[in-house]
Amino acid sequence: MDDVLTSMAVFWALMLLTYFLMQNGLSIFNDVAKSMGMFMLEKALGPGIDLVEGRPGSASKAWIMQGLLWLLAASTLTFEGLWMMHDPLALHSLSAWGYSPTSGSLLYAGNYAVLYGGIGMLLIGAGLHILPRLARTELASEKNAALVSFLWTISVLVLVIGAHDSEVLGINIIFVGTVMHVVAFLAIITNQLLTVSKRQGPLAIPGWLIIFGLLADPVATAAIFVSGSIETGVGQWLLGHMVGGTFFFASAAGIALYASSSASGNPLWSRSLAAAVLVGSIATINPMGEVDGRMAADMLGLNFGELHVTSEDNLVAAFLMALATIPIMALAANVLITLRGGDAFVENADSAGTAELNLGASMLLPLAIGSLFIQSDAFAATPEFSGLAGTLMLMGIWLILVPFSLGAALHLFPTVTGRHLLSRNRARWAFWMMAGGAFLGLTVTMMADMIDMALIEATVEDPSSLSGDLRVVGAVLFYGTAVGAVMHSLNAVSGLFRGARVDSVRDTSSSISPESYSLASPTSVRRILAGGANLDTTVVPVGESDDAGSATEL
């Protein structure tokens, strides 16, 4: 049976139906659905809804701040996991407290913490700010979105605990965390759908990427169940990659495109490439991620199925993964050129998060190609590169998804909170610590993986001392990522209380065209020229306003 093609066909059909319902609604049921949605978001919670404030931006702030703290926890867990690859007894003293982690359990817990805690919360937090802006309306329920952030955090904590021991007192902890996660996720989807339903005019493509990134997650799960492949290894593998290509990739693409335009003050370089990213994220299979479906199986409380791929599944999956390089290249090119404007060598050093966006876009294509080879190899009868899969997945997480989500969150921080980060210099140093630690540490770790693979291929039983030494160096270098996460977290938390207040005049201009440049605040000639202006460009002064700025029209 062709599980891949069948599941993807069901997924495409459900996504088309979803898009049709969003555009046309359910006729006489529209008002009823909206009323019921608002009732479930606020009235149904009773007095609990009053536990949080409902000021504009409060929901986005809550998600972003908790996401930053989860990045700190995730980087620490990943560092410990990398260190214990060389020294399995490094945390042996904790066994007296009933805690006996292994390298595998720590890395597994770190993946939950970074994917759903750090990246997930930053993506949703940024989306809660961006989507209402693009829809030219207000978020349907600030209070509900802010309250749900704490439920999401609790669910991630349960998932992290379950990664160490999936059963406690006979209860599947990971599945319990998944149920809590689903409740919070559905609340966010409902909130954003109600927001989009009030849009004043057409929604820009980055907005569609954000909303489709949210919707495609439950739709993909439903498609796998409907096709009947959820119990198979292929179905579980496919579900993991469908979620990775929609919620993580599509959402990250949406906020990265918005933030690159807003941070640079340049118009989005190509709407056609943005449309290619939107279609490609739904129509293809993203190659980045696990080489099996263990995480998907654990979260759904299913027995893990070994990956046995038929020739038909192999052909379809390989084709759709190769096709995914088109939206990946489109996203990378669009973000990089938008950030730089007319001059490829001019950067906006004044906007926090720009460096992270640059890093994520730069690493996107090479890591995607590497993942394509690894995934294709995993389908073979005798995989030869499986030893590189774990490290390559970590590189995709820490060098693509984290920079995209973190970069957008840092750029939006002043608008969301009303205050700037405490120190731009600290933000710059934090970037170099996180980026350098992740890139160098994981590169050295991959070198150790290659040595171990070579020894296995040569049937050498004794471990290599060089491999062990490289793993120590890799773990020490990755420790810089944890330090950078601490610096980012302290910088943001301190900024909430001691950061400079955002002036009524926006820091950067966001309306650039070849004919005119709208000057909303003092800027340099260098930055005007970087936006594509020339000597004949008319500089148009814009009056001061108390309204917060927004991104270039996308």
Keywords:
554 residues, mainly alpha, Cytochrome C Oxidase, Chain A, two-stranded antiparallel ribbon, 17 helices
Query: What is the count of distinct domains?
Result: 1
Provide the CATH superfamily: Cytochrome c oxidase-like, subunit I domain
Within the CATH hierarchy, at the fold level, what is the topology? Cytochrome C Oxidase, Chain A
Number of strands: 4
Q: Helical content, roughly?
A: 55-70%
Architecture blueprint of SSEs:
Blueprint (H helix, E strand, L loop, with lengths): L2 H22 L5 H12 L16 H27 L18 H33 L6 H23 L2 E2 L2 E2 H25 L7 H23 L5 H32 L6 H13 L10 H6 L11 H13 L1 H16 L13 H25 L10 H29 L6 H34 L7 H34 L17 E4 L5 H6 L7 E4 L13
Structural description of this entry:
The structure is a single chain. This protein is mainly alpha-helical and 554 residues long. It has one domain: Cytochrome C Oxidase, Chain A (Up-down Bundle). The chain has 17 helices and 4 strands. Helix 3 runs parallel beside helix 5 (142-164), helix 3 packs antiparallel against helix 14 and helix 7 (205-227) runs parallel beside helix 9 (271-283).
In brief:
With 554 residues, the chain is mainly alpha-helical. 67% of the residues lie in helices and 2% in strands. It has one domain: Cytochrome C Oxidase, Chain A (Up-down Bundle).
